[in-house]
Design goal:
145 residues; mainly alpha; Arc Repressor Mutant, subunit A; two-stranded antiparallel ribbon; 5 helices; 2 strands
Length: 145
Amino acid sequence: MSFLPSRASKILYTPYKNVCLKSVLTPIVKVNKMGIRNRSRVEILYDIVSAAKSPAKKTHLMYKSNLSFKQLELYLNFLMEQGLVEGRHDDENLGRVYQMTSRGLEFSSLFENLQTYLQGPRHMEGRELEIATEEYAAPPVQRSY
């Protein structure tokens, strides 16, 4: 069984602000001695963003994404810098709450589509990979035989 390298070998950039993803990428599949699959950093980011669909405190995000408080703070700061999650003061709950932004919704949609696509043809059932926005959509391929 071969594993992917622990870090991406090339530096990849997002279309937003040329953000380097090298520090965000980890192996897609990594299994420990007990046979339990570890989550990649991108999956952890997705878990936090999806947990913040409705306004939530840090503690709720921590429990929903299954992270320690220190880990959550690191990831949450990254997500806020990238504009995927926003934090605001909530007068009702007397504290700071975090919620997904429109960019976070786009990230969530792209991740879900990619996950569905990577599961292979048996899970696709004839569906094509859906792109969240038109700016990412490639023109249809014209084939002549």
